[in-house]
Amino acid sequence: MANAELQALKLNSGECIMVGDLLETDIRMGQIANIHTALVRTGVAQKEDIALSGFKPDYVLQSVQDLVAAAD
């Protein structure tokens, strides 16, 4: 799905970041498409889950607002 969206939007994976709250779906999809990943902890995944998962996000954020603040 991510690769199809990259093609449709004419974007390179290096220009994007996959943001999500699920390691097994959101973070995994980003990694498969070679997109940087950010896990937001406002959803299901908790900090302890990262250590147990095979899917390690590039960034761990408390909320999506942290991503906006980093872009400024």
From TrEMBL:
Database matches in SUPFAM superfamilies: HAD-like
Pfam families found in the cross-reference section: Hydrolase_like
InterPro entries in the cross-refs: HAD-like_sf (IPR036412), HAD_sf (IPR023214)
Top-level taxonomic group: Bacteria
Alphabetical list of Gene3D superfamilies matching this protein: HAD superfamily/HAD-like
Name of the protein described by the UniProt record: HAD hydrolase-like protein
Protein source organism: Paenibacillus chungangensis
